[in-house]
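Appendix B. Raw example, untouched.
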Amino acid sequence: MNKQLIGSMFFLMTTILYSTKYIAAAIAGADSGTWSEEDFSFYVSFTPDIFNVLMYLTMGVGVIYIVWGFLIMKKKHIDPSGENGDEG
């Protein structure tokens, strides 16, 4: 499988983890009669820190895979559009 594709999948996982933190806070505050920025910040503070740890970990792995894939393409002189850079 392509390294850039794997990196993009890790970015997708990062996005899902990031949004899950805020969705969980919104669900926790759904019973509240009033909504304010302070209330939402209060509920976000109770979401597990594992979301942040996993989010930054998957983002780092995604960046590594994307950069690794581009370095391999540069080493092989392959144009990202699919055309060979040696012809011409």
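End of appendix B.
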